[in-house]
Every structure is written in C-alpha cells, then in structure tokens.
Design brief:
By secondary structure, the chain is mainly beta. It contains no helices and nine strands. Belongs to the yippee family. InterPro entries: Yippee (IPR034751), Yippee/Mis18/Cereblon (IPR004910), Yippee_fam (IPR039058). This is Protein yippee-like.
Length: 106
C-alpha cells in the first residue's frame, strides 16, 4: 500500500503554525530585512499589520507586515501596491523571510 504524503508546507519557526505552501512559491531570489526571503502567491494563518509606504531595494511600495496568527512573530510582509510598473507583479503577494519559516513534509 502506498504511503500518502501531505503537502509540503512552511511553518512559523517560532511556534510551528503552518503559514504557506511550497507550491505557492513564486521566487526564492528575494531579500528580506534579515537575509534571504521567498515570494509566495498565498499565505495562511497570518495577520497583517497596518499598510505603510516603504522604500525597498526595488523602489517605493505600500506594504503591510505579516505576523504569525498563533504567536505574533513577524514573518515578512505583503505587497499591497507597487508604484513602478515593472514591480506590479508583486502586488497581493507575500514575502516570507527564510529565517522565520521552516520546511515540513519535504
């Protein structure tokens, strides 16, 4: 009998809450505040902070920090608006800092 394996997920490194799916990764070539980060199309079990304009490496963006719903740890941010046309693909997407998430079911 074949063993069923669940989806590959990333969890909050602080409390283990599932926050994103491996299949939702758009890019692994992002830079967070504390090192490498991943861009995801979706997130789960998070809460968002207030929106604010922030000057990032790729220009001015409106972003909202994202926090683990269970423990409140800052995990990254959500792009709400990109002011430069070449950055519009990021709108509505989530950046998770690699140090803040751990792999499960890999």
């Amino acid at each position: 009998m074949a063993k069923l394996v669940g989806p590959r997920v990333y969890s909050c490194s602080h409390c283990g809450n599932h926050v994103c799916l491996h299949d939702d990764i758009i890019s692994k070539a992002f830079q967070g505040r504390n090192g490498h980060a991943f861009l995801f199309s979706h997130a789960m079990n998070i809460v968002m902070g207030p929106k604010e304009d922030r000057q990032l490496m790729t220009g001015l963006h409106t972003v909202a920090d994202i926090y683990c719903r269970d423990c409140g740890e800052v995990l990254g941010w959500k792009y709400e608006r990109a002011y430069e046309e070449t950055q519009k693909y990021k709108e509505g997407k989530f950046v998770f800092e690699k140090l803040r998430i751990i792999k499960e079911n890999f």
